[in-house]
User: Fold this.
Amino acid sequence: MRKTQEGIAISLIRGGTFYWAQEKMGLVRPDQWNLGKRVLLAVAVAWIPLVILTAMHNGSDLYELLTDYRVYARAFIAIPLLLIAQVGMERRFRETARYFLDANLVRTEDLGHFRALMEKARRLRDAKPPELIVLALVYLQVGYFLEAGKLGGSRWAASVGGGGLTAAGYYSILITQALFMAMLGLVIWKWLIWILVMRDLSKMHLQVDPTDGDLSAGLGFLGEIPKTFTPVLLAISVVIGASWRHEVMADQVALKSLTMPAGLLAVVVVVIFIAPLALFTPFLARTKRLGLNQYGALQHLHSLEFRKKWVEERNEHVAELLGNPDFSSLADISSSFKNVEEMKVFPFRKSAIVTLVLALTIPLLPVISVKIPLKELLKGLLKALH
Assistant:
């Protein structure tokens, strides 16, 4: 194993204007995420002012705020999940970058190129314009919510008589909603950086072998990367599910009409988090094609020698028959060639897809339970599994 060179494998999370701002406030440190402290602060910023502003405006509306699960979905579940996701992404990105070095996937003569790729990723991570664009997109979305009166169905958020939003309503959109969207936007930006890194890595002459037991020529570990975004999908699904449940219960939309958006959401998830692995498909396809030729020829030569010795000239080697390693050698080379034949050119793992789909669908079950009792729904799912 080659010693990982210090500073080559970087973090895609510990950088950028928003991260540095948290660092200056003492919320994060180079060796500490202070996750509990940051979660408590984020929840406090997202929720406590809503309670205070609602109580000041109209105390009778406070109960409605305190029982509005859409608020809890965003402030108490989604925002903490996005903070948790940062820790997982930090670890996964570092481990993946280091694996390319520790497994000798990167040739010694290409270390300079690999270092340049990591520096490019570092510059993108620290660039200010992308984060400003994320912020601008967030407040464009906020403008849409204000224009559409998205919270108009909540008494705590809307003034009596259709006079616009209350102070709590404005805070919910301008701060709580914006905080959630900004954190989500930054996560997506970090993922886009990693996609660019994977694209560049897929163009390198990596040291792989089609007989590798992971059936992806040694790149099977990439299939685990999408699992890192499970908390992100949970956050998105929780917020969407809470909104859909409210609309269904208020008879604003029919449950059946949500089938298409739910299916589209699943497709988008696959495209965003699974499809980028196909960047390695051309490289793996070439590797498999070459491996079938090389190891096919090697297996054939081995089989010819085995036949000559143990079939055509077996009488001369009968005394060597018991315990002879030639038979194990034949089985081993056949097994290696079978690995080449079964090699996948798309390094995804079914477990990753299952994990992402579950993260997406489980928070949506309360939407379905509006019309179908949860007990019956779970009973039907268990029956389907049998």
